[in-house]
Write a structure and sequence with these properties.
Protein name: Glycosyl hydrolase family 65 protein
Keywords: Glycosidase, Hydrolase
Distance between the termini: 42 Å
Structural class: alpha+beta
Strand order of the largest sheet: 1-2-6-7
Pfam families: Glyco_hydro_65C (PF03633), Glyco_hydro_65m (PF03632)
InterPro entries: 6-hairpin_glycosidase_sf, 6hp_glycosidase-like_sf, Glyco_hydro_65_C, Glyco_hydro_65_M
Number of helices: 3
GO molecular function, one term: hydrolase activity
Helix content: 25-40%
Shape: elongated
CATH class of the largest domain: Mainly Beta
Length: about 140
């Protein structure tokens, strides 16, 4: 059986590297995801995937590469996608808003479905904006 780094270890390292060395973080994330799919760990995939590594992988995509944080009742975003990841879309619910976030290297788009929620403060790369229910914002990404 070939010895290799655990999938959770690769994901933990990817999480740490996600803001400073996106290329290395992306390689480690892909390594962790491929480990279960390719069953490179000597036949243990038939026993089930490493759920912790899979959940952490989603966290890296949704929080680390998007810079998603909640501070002072506002949704903060500071997206920095790795080069091979050209588009990332995720949905979330926050303060009564049903929100779709779409990130590319060029833009960040935030769309709120119509609800009874009050306008929401969204801060993208340090710039605060107000997102009304049923509204959308599209922000150009800073130069890479």
């Amino acid at each position: 059986m070939q010895q290799s780094r655990s999938t959770l270890s690769a994901v933990a390292h990817a999480w740490v590297l996600s803001r400073g060395d996106r290329a290395a973080a992306w390689r480690l994330l892909c390594e962790a995801l491929e480990a279960d799919l390719a069953d490179r760990r000597g036949g243990i995939t038939r026993e089930g995937i490493h759920l912790g590594a899979m959940a952490a992988s989603i966290d890296i995509l949704q929080r680390c590469f998007t810079g998603l944080e909640i501070r002072a009742a506002a949704l903060h975003l500071h997206p920095r996608l790795p080069d091979p990841l050209t588009r990332l879309t995720c949905d979330l619910q926050f303060r009564g808003h049903l929100i779709t976030l779409t990130f590319t290297h060029e833009t960040t788009r935030i769309t709120s479905r119509s609800t009874a929620a009050r306008p929401l403060t969204v801060v993208v790369d340090g710039t605060p904006m107000l997102l009304p229910s049923g509204g959308s914002l599209e922000i150009s990404s800073p130069s890479r």
